[in-house]
Amino acid sequence: MEKKKLRSAAWFDGDEKMSFVHRSWMRNQGYPDDHFRGKPVIGICNTWSELTPCNGHLRDFAEWVKRGVLEAGGFPLEFPVMSLGETLMRPTTMLFRNLASMDTEETIRANPLDGIVLLTGCDKTTPSTVMGACSVDLPTIVVPGGPMLNGVFRGERIGSGTFVWKIKDKMGTEEFSKEDLLEAEICSARSPGHCMTMGTASTMACMVESLGLTLPGAAAIPAVDSRKKVMAQLAGRRIVEMVKEDLTLSKILTREAFENAIILNAGVGGSTNFIIHLQAIAGRIGVELNLEDFDKIGSKIPLLVNLMPSGDYLMEDFFYAGGLPVVINELKTYLHQGAITVNSKSLVENSSKAQCYNREVIASIGKPLIAEAGIAVLKGNLCENGAVIKPSAATPELMNYRGKACVFTSIEDYHARIDHPDTPIDEHGIIVVQGLGPVGYPGMPEAGNVDLPVKVLKKGIKDMVRISDGRMSGTAYGTVVLHVSPESAIGGNIALVKDGDEIELNVPERTLQLLISDEELELRRQAWTPPKPVTDRGYVNMYINNVQQAHLGVDLDFLVGKSGKEVARDNH
Ligand code: FES
Question: Is the CB of 377 within 6 Å of ligand 1?
């Protein structure tokens, strides 16, 4: 086979002035000359940041990747990209996912790299880097940073995020004092790693494994387990081979691979954020994937994994039970066997020997937790381009429900009025929150799972139908309709709902209807005025003017697709 010239050779090969410049400055870091003579250059794209606690251990991890790259005869070069920490960033990390993807894409494109290892962890750091890498399309492997160890508080498993949602109403009461809270704080974050429920970060780790972008079994290994370092080292070795094989992202990320990811996301009970991120990734690599595909392909798949937020266990338990390879093995008849992974074998081939060590955590296909899981996609005059709901996290009695709307124009309006005596809401109503969409907030925050009014909670009622154009944390649960598109800020019909309007949610029929006449809807549309944009400068202004709606994946319209790996002009 003819040896293909490495992409990095365009920088490092040759004896003219610029090759000298490219090599000479790099050599101030102490690299021997042979590193620039035909070794695949592997970029280790690191989302490490002390401001992203879930990725705080990744600087250390990069060293294990480097070991592997060196062992396989490659030249590792680590570089930072914008890191997105879910817990600290204002107003929401989702506003910056596309910016981080641009950083990743342009850093890869602009530099002499032949292959890429993505070190990821917290929710948005996985999709943003994968999106960016897809737009360049070099051989790429993902090393998910791994979940934290189980949270354990006074003998009870507590899941990151999920625990907070559960106890927030008791905080500061006799039942749960300030001292209890302080103790619980460290108990729910007792090791490096990302959230250990099947929240968005774990969902993203499973997503990249399902897409074939990791070595087998990578997703569930806890961040502090020594096997995670082994995985990082093996990924370092493998990426060098992938460069030699020219195994680029687009050879792995086929339509079949995306369908496999949808099937497995249903099987593990992954977060609703999966939809938005998977669509954005598909858009970058050039695979057609629409919102309806998630329902068509995923909604009849059985739920096998019993993890919080809707189940009982955590990622550490999932790992001990066998992890994603067990789920792949159980669901193999649904999966495309032709889709290859980074090791050139299919998911099914890689998982054929996987054994389940705890059926409480991973159910068998013959005895699933729920016969049909996945995500339901709704259509109707309230969401003309679609909305989503996760039935496995919802209350069965509310899946076919009619109630009167109580409308909040923003999340601030909700907080100000939800418990006000004049607010027309009781347990029979439906809470509608506007202004949480990509343009409106801006950035589509995880605020759709708003709390019930205190007066309703006091009656012991734990769930009501809630509808918004926002997202929901993967660690949350409830009968929450999300991602309503078009959103209120651009004049979607959700902007036209008024207090007292009847709304009908029918999940079995996949409909969401505002029960007013077309004439009335049109009159309200004529009277509607768009909200003022929050800013007219900077990245946020660019975001507001170019962001796509939820049903398309919330990417910036001009980022969809690839720029590719060729950069025509040299640097001078
Ligand atoms: Fe980082 Fe949950 S806050 S994964």
Answer: no
**Which class for 397: exposed (0-12), middle (13-18), buried (19 or more C-beta within 10 A)?**
exposed
Q: pTM (2 decimals)?
A: 0.97
pLDDT score recorded for residue 149: 97
Shortest-distance Cα residue to atom 1 of ligand 1 = 122
**CATH 3.50.30.80 is right for the domain spanning 376-532:** yes
Residue carrying the six token digits 């409106």: 440
Q: How far is 24 from 123, CA to CA, in rounded Å?
A: 38
For 381, the token pair is: 């005059």
Nearest-atom index, ligand 1, CA of 54: 1
CA-to-CA dists, residue 134 to 22, 56, 129, 282, angstroms = 26, 25, 8, 9
Is the distance from CB of 305 to CB of 104 less than 8 angstroms? Answer: no
Structure-block tokens of residue 337: 């066997």
What span, in angstroms and rounded, lies between the C-alpha atoms of 230 and 113?
23
- Helices 255-268, 291-298: axis angle to 10 degrees equals 60
Can you say how many angstroms the Cα of residue 372 is from the centroid of all Cα atoms in its chain? 22
All structural domains of the chain with their residue ranges: 39-149+191-350, 150-190, 376-532
* Residue ranges for the chain with pLDDT beneath 70: 1-3, 169
Ligand 1 close to Cβ of residue 199 (< 6 A): yes
CB of 158 closer than 6 angstroms to any ligand 1 atom: no
Other Cβ atoms closer than 10 A to 490: 16
C-alpha–C-alpha distance, residues 499 and 491, integer Å: 17
Q: For residue 428, what is the enclosing H or E element?
A: none
Quote the distance between the C-alpha of residue 63 and its chain's center. 26
Q: What is the pLDDT of residue 3?
A: 64
